[in-house]
Amino acid sequence: MKKLALVCVAIAVIAGAWFLFQPKGQSLSAAQTSPLADGAMVAVVVPAQFTEQEQMGERAYEAKCAACHGANGQGQDGVAPPFVHRIYEPNHHGDMAFVLATQNGVRAHHWSFGDMPAVEGVTVSDVSNIVAYVRALQRENGIN
Ligand code: HEC
Fold first, then answer.
1. pLDDT at 79 > cutoff 50
2. Distance of alpha carbon 73 from its chain centroid, rounded?
3. What is the distance in angstroms between the CA of the first residue and the CA of the last residue of the chain?
4. Rounded to the nearest 5 degrees, what angle is found at the Cα of 29, between the Cα atoms of 138 and 38?
């Protein structure tokens, strides 16, 4: 019984020490990962300013794309990929890819989210604003 008590005390001490050290480590990693709240897949730095076209794109994006692709192009775990990602840099997915994706939908190929359905009620000029917005986000995060 004594041995058991000793083991219990030892465990308590170790757990206590772990507990004391943990909060520091946690707050640090929380600070690093907090931009990843809400199922975001990447941390996105949002530009301080957007042009008028980019702002129109932002509004259209939020209305039509963000439900899947997440706020600020950050992606959404289990739903749709982030646009602030090398895969979608301009020379891999040019502006036309956004028009086609919106008009025709996308068959799943880069990820395992499943297909993207065509998006209703988005004009070509909406998409070009969305692309301007997405490119601004990409540039701010070093994806050119
Ligand atoms: C219902 C969810 C959903 C919505 C809404 C949505 N997407 Fe997607 N989108 C996806 C998924 C899932 C993929 C990933 C397909 C894959 O595996 O490559 C994707 C991929 C894309 C791609 C990559 C196409 C390619 O050629 O690889 C583009 C561009 C795109 N979406 C643009 C948009 C735009 C612009 C909007 C808003 C107008 C939008 N999406 C709205 C789910 C969505």
1. yes
2. 6
3. 67
4. 55
10 in Cβ contact with 50 (< 8 Å) = no
CA distance 75 to 35: 12
Q: Which of 41, 68, 112, 129 to mutate to test the pocket of ligand 1 (most atoms within 8 A of CB)?
A: 68
Residue 28 has pLDDT above 50, yes or no: no
60 CA: nearest ligand 1 atom? 38
What pLDDT digit, counting tens, does each position of 101-119 carry?
999 999 999 999 999 999 9
Q: Which residue bears the tokens 């950050």?
A: 74
pLDDT over threshold 90, residue 134 = yes
Query: How far, in Å, CA of 137 to CA of 32, rounded?
Result: 19
| Alpha carbon distance 1, 107 (integer Å) | 65
Round to whole Å and give the CA distance between 61 and 83.
11
Q: What is the pLDDT of residue 24?
A: 45
Place of tokens 């994006």: 61
Phi and psi (nearest 5°) for 107? Answer: -80, 130
Mutation test of ligand 1: which of 76, 87, 116, 123 has the most ligand atoms closer than 8 Å to its C-beta?
116
